[in-house]
Amino acid sequence: MRFLHTADWQLGMTRHFLAGDAQPRFSAARRDAVSGLGALAAEVGAEFVVVAGDVFEHNQLSPQVVGQSLEAMRAIGIPVYLLPGNHDPLDASSVYTSALFTADRPDNVVVLDRAGVHEVRPGVEIVAAPWRTKAPTTDLVAKVLDELPGSSEAPVTRILVAHGGVDVLDPDRDKPSLIRLASLDDALARGALHYVALGDKHSRTQVGGSGRVWYSGAPEVTNFDDVEADSGHVLVVDVDDNGVTVTSRHVGRWRFVTMHRQVDTSRDIADLDMNLDLMTDKDRTVVRLALTGSLTVTDRAALDACLDKYARLFAWLGLWERHSDLAVVPADGEFTDLGIGGFAAAAVEELVATARADTERAADAQAALALLLRLADRGAA
User: Fold this and answer.
1) Res 183: pLDDT
2) CA gyration radius for the chain?
3) What pLDDT, in 10s, does the model give residues 268-316?
4) Nearest to residue 159, comparing CAs of 8, 47, 9, 10?
5) Do the strands 213-215 and 195-199 form a parallel or antiparallel pair, or are they unpaired?
6) CB contact at 8 A, 282 and 25
7) What phi and psi values does residue 159 have, to the nearest 5 degrees?
């Protein structure tokens, strides 16, 4: 028996920094990752798809988002089992019980809206642990596992579909909602379960040493690579008499990249320019720059010109302010050959002195000098 394990689609997700057409393209890529599961399922011969929580970004979605999402699921063409997670729990405002969702839900889409066993076909069952609130106070998996018979009592293949943190990966191991790996391993050992499909962690992750407990990660990126190191995957899972085989397939198309760079010289800026230029798929790449260093006003103007150029090419590019620290110190003689004199020259000298001082006005003076150089065409990249 073969199926696809995915999670954390978070359809309807927005990112505040995506402007212009970047946000619509990002949203379309998330839907494309969903509808594209149909081609993958046909290629590998998967019977069904399980989505281990957070299908939607939240429960308050526009009719357009809900309708387009359901059409993407319809395109998959095989049964798709949706588990409500912490972003889209089965509470009073649940998207899953909305009039639009219930009216337009395709026949191949099944909401795992009750805890316990759901039959896929004779001999194959899904064990579900749906969220009914954003902050459960108990381990939602523990109860459903306690009620499962062992393999000798019921010779069926069972897939647990659950959402949330696992105790061995969470620093707060006393959190009551954590899923206990020991209870999962026990259920696998006694044959009550054969595979555990988890959601919530957006990076593809194997949990424990059994090879049967996995987070699939999000199929399309949701955060920067220093937080979400291995997203963009769907897991192809085989369960047979010989055990379980898990194969990963990369389906994501977007990247959220964090770059840390020290920039002190024009050469450092040229290296940054080259690295940005070499990056492919700029229209589907978000770049967050953590820049530190000390630059002359001329070099800072060149850096600003470089960043302006690439901000027009990437889906988004900007400074990570909390992790950037760029000092601007005018160099001796930096403004002597601008061809100005009299009052204007005196004003420039005053700006230089202010820019070198450790005062609140220094940043404004540095920006004014950088603008002057750029207008004089000395800081163009």
Assistant:
1) 95
2) 27
3) 999 999 999 999 999 999 999 999 998 988 898 899 999 999 999 999 9
4) 47
5) parallel
6) no
7) -115, 120
